[in-house]
Fold this sequence. Notes:
The protein has one helix spanning 29-48; strands at 60-62, 65-74, 77-86, 93-100. The chain is α+β, with helices and mostly antiparallel strands. It has a domain at 29-100.
Amino acid sequence: MKTLVFLPLLLLIVGCAATVPHKAASLSPERAKLLVLRLANDKAQALYQCQPFQDGTTPQLIDSRWIWTERRGHGKADLEAQVSFDLDGSAPNVDVLLLWYKPLEKF
Length: 107
């Protein structure tokens, strides 16, 4: 008569940890300032053939977005730039407006 031998079966389950979405690094205030200046000047160059934003204030971090507004004189007009983007510099929104002032002659 044969004897059946049962060997213990070792079951090894290897699991994968849930991957955490990669969070892009936030820009420092200095890097954010360089980016707003480049974006504003690129847009001003495309629209008005000038790059008046050479220095300015540091953008403000508001609700997880960098926000920056600046106005510069250019000839007889002003250019106003409004730039915003996500913490890591993605999803930029850039507006540059030409503000032309004409004095009132009479009321």
